[in-house]
Design a protein that fits this description.
Blueprint: E1 9-13, H1 17-26, E2 32-36, H2 63-72, H3 76-82, E3 86-89, E4 94-98, E5 101-102, E6 106-107, E7 111-114, H4 117-129, E8 134-137, E9 140-147, E10 154-161, E11 168-171, E12 174-177, H5 185-191, E13 199-202, E14 206-214, E15 224-227, E16 235-242, E17 246-254, H6 267-272, H7 278-283, E18 293-295, E19 300-303, E20 315-317, E21 323-324, H8 332-348, H9 354-377, H10 389-405, H11 409-419, H12 431-443, E22 458-459
Parallel strand pairs: 1-2, 1-12, 2-8, 4-15, 6-22, 12-20
Antiparallel strand pairs: 3-7, 4-5, 9-10, 10-11, 13-19, 14-17, 14-18, 15-16, 16-17, 19-21
Helix pairs in contact: 1-4, 1-8, 2-8, 8-9, 10-11, 10-12
Protein name: FAD-binding monooxygenase
Domain FAD-dependent oxidoreductase 2 FAD-binding: 85-194
InterPro entries: FAD-dep_OxRdtase_2_FAD-bd, FAD/NAD-bd_sf
């Protein structure tokens, strides 16, 4: 859309990854886009901020997320690599251990990126604020909405400058609530006379400890590692290479059986309990590059806006304000990126009826990662939730799939393609994958004891 065809003003509440990506696509349709955030925003790519407590923990930019960001920001991957981020072949470069099974390694072209949350957000913020018509105002907190007389349309937002006592009332053609997990979107709807969306909650009782370590190229025999917790051993860890010649390592504990050590000197012994030796090797070899940071995020929440029959025009909730995920699965930033594409496509279809059209399409984007995360969380007996036959069947099937993936790289690729939101779940049941999963189930379970011997690297085509 040319500058002459753009019209109106869009307000984005929240300048985290989700809000920034929303602003990026809104800039294609609206002549003016104003972003507000209550935090003082750092000017570098290292410093975190209060509104993103998870910023100092390991983050995953899944393959679909990288693909979308490359589309929205040309030269994204090259720019990030120049800044020190590490391009990753998700299956060829990363050690994956799921349910005690080491996934067979293969070069696939399934491309991820090793980067810190703070570094990625700083880059996206620079690119978005350089766009014509986009303005970012930090230290302004969203306090409410402005509606027309019959409350059928939101026509603006009220914001309060930090340290001030006088609200600013700003008119807008569209308001996007991207204020994250703690958003007040449902309450704002209720104040306007609308129903709140139904909510689904899952508390995985997961705790994280993260720390950066100094990285020397070639020092260790791997590029990254993911050791997933399981009901049998509810501890795990993730290590990713990031900018600044650092490793970002996160230890994970689930429930009462997954207690994490409070003493950093005990991290290596904790990692020794994990299948595989990659995390132990790092902890006993590399020098810390910062203090440890502990995190226990609130429950995962999905708000079912797509089920509401009445919605005001001019208001959309976005990213974590719609669905916040268990960070252990690394889905949040990628889902926000995918939602940005949905928002762009919904706007191209017209502005009338935009909220309903957006929520209907966004729900389809959210379904797969939500089902993956919730299904995995519900494997733990202490996690409360409805365990349907579908959930039980899929969890049983995925456990067998992990056993098959230890022998067959094409099975591992199917799993990673779905987990990275590059393929639909049906790919896990394609004839070739299904046959190998069923055969591995007949062959019996093999434990991880011999895991220390990595599988040879082969090549598997990503399509299929």
């Amino acid at each position: 859309m040319s500058a002459k065809e753009k019209s109106g003003h869009a307000i984005v509440l929240g300048a985290s990854i989700g809000g920034l990506l929303a602003a990026r696509v809104l800039s294609e349709s609206y002549a003016k886009v104003t972003i507000f955030d209550r935090d003082t925003l750092p000017t570098d790519g290292v410093t975190g901020r209060k509104g993103v407590p998870q910023g100092d923990h390991t983050h995953g930019l899944l393959a679909r997320g990288r693909q979308v960001l490359e589309e929205l920001f040309p030269d994204f991957a090259m720019d990030m690599a120049t800044a020190g981020a590490v391009p990753i072949d998700v299956q060829g470069d990363v050690v994956w251990i799921n349910d005690g099974q080491r996934l067979a390694t293969a070069h696939t072209g399934l491309a991820g990126l090793g980067v810190t949350r703070n570094g990625l957000e700083a880059y996206v913020r620079r690119r978005v604020t350089a766009l014509p018509g986009v303005q970012l105002l930090p230290r302004h907190e969203a306090v409410g909405l402005i509606a027309n007389d019959d409350r059928t349309r939101v026509v603006g937002a009220r914001v309060l400058p930090t340290g001030g006592d006088t609200e600013l009332r700003l008119e807008a053609d569209l308001v996007v609530d991207a204020t994250g997990r703690g958003n007040r979107g449902p309450s704002w709807l209720a104040e306007l006379g609308y129903d709140k969306p139904a909510e689904e909650h899952v508390d995985s009782r997961t705790v994280y400890i993260s720390r950066a370590y100094r990285r020397t190229p070639g020092q260790l025999g791997f590029t990254g590692a993911v050791v997933s917790p399981s009901p049998e051993l509810p501890i795990g860890g993730v290590v990713v290479p990031v900018e600044g010649d650092r490793w970002m390592l996160t230890l994970i504990g689930v429930g009462a059986g997954g207690a994490l050590p409070s003493d950093p000197d005990a991290y290596a012994e904790f990692a020794r309990r994990l299948p595989g030796n990659e995390l132990y090797q790092l902890l006993s070899t590399c020098e810390p590059a910062g203090p440890p940071v502990r995190l226990r995020l609130p429950v995962s929440v999905r708000r079912r806006y797509e089920h509401l029959t009445r919605l005001p025009e001019g208001l959309i909730s976005f990213a974590d304000a719609v669905c916040s995920f268990n960070p252990a699965y690394g889905q949040g930033m990628t889902v926000a990126a995918a939602e940005a594409i949905v928002l762009r496509d919904s706007l191209r279809a017209g502005r009338d009826g935009l909220p309903k059209r957006f929520y209907a399409a966004a729900s389809k984007v959210i379904d797969v990662p939500w089902d993956i995360a919730v299904g995995a969380d519900l494997r733990y007996p202490e996690v409360e939730g409805v365990r349907t036959r579908k959930v039980d069947f899929l969890n049983g099937y995925v456990a067998r799939l992990h056993r098959a993936a230890a022998r067959h790289p094409e099975v591992g690729l199917a799993f990673l393609a779905v987990a990275n939101l590059m393929s639909p779940p049906q790919r896990l049941f394609s004839p070739g994958v299904l046959a190998r999963v069923l055969w591995s189930g007949r062959a019996g379970r093999t434990r991880t004891a011999p895991l220390a011997q990595p599988s040879p690297v082969s090549r598997v085509e990503p399509a299929g």
